[in-house]
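Let us practice reading a record.
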Amino acid sequence: MIFEDDKKCFACGSENSRGLHLKFSYGTDSATSRFTASADLQGYKDVTHGGIISTLLDEVMVHAALKDGAMPATAEITVRFKKPMITGQPVILEGNVTRRTSRLIETRGVIKSESDGSIIAEATAKLLK
């Protein structure tokens, strides 16, 4: 299967009217973004749904791996939730590549509170090249 970007990705697609519209900054094997969840993304009152948190982590880790025009796909992801992500409060997404092999890219992602830097959730993933 060939993956291509049609700008309709739920997480970062500029042409997805219902998407999250994430924008990224890039370093060598890293990506960062800023995000504030709205109330329509909550599970419990004022708490961002865990599926959205997992999506954010998945996306920042994939973007960290977008080196040399590769379009990696997530094969495995493990998420650890440390504390609630409160809606309306800005967070920082950070992702980086920890290892590359001939078939896989291993990554780490973290969501931190913008106000105090505390870790809200973290993840590791294995991406297929």
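A brief commentary: Residues 25-128 form a domain with the Thiol Ester Dehydrase; Chain A fold (CATH 3.10.129.10).
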